[in-house]
Amino acid sequence: xxxxxxxLTADAxxxxxxxxxxxxxxxxxxxSIEKPIRQIDALQKTTESARAxxxxxxxxxxxxxxxQSKKLASLSKALILTSLERNELCQLQxxxxxAIN
Length: 101
Fold this sequence. Notes:
- This protein is mainly α.
- Helix content is 82%, strand content 0%.
- The protein is built from one helix and no strands.
- The longest helix is centred in the middle third of the chain and has 83 residues, at 12-94.
């Protein structure tokens, strides 16, 4: 059999530079990934806020519609009462005046 030998040498200074470069590149990669993740989080919060505002808007709109319907109903009742009052006044004016002794 043939003997094989491997000789491994390392330059400590080059190794430190390589680790520092890796650390810098890794930090840049983390920053580049964090930014879109923060944007996604902000978008989700904005979406939730918009949904809540939409629910409140439509609840308020339903309330306004209900109040408007009640207002119209009360106005029509008021018109009917006014008409009845006018008819009664006309009848009173047509009635003969008689003195009560």
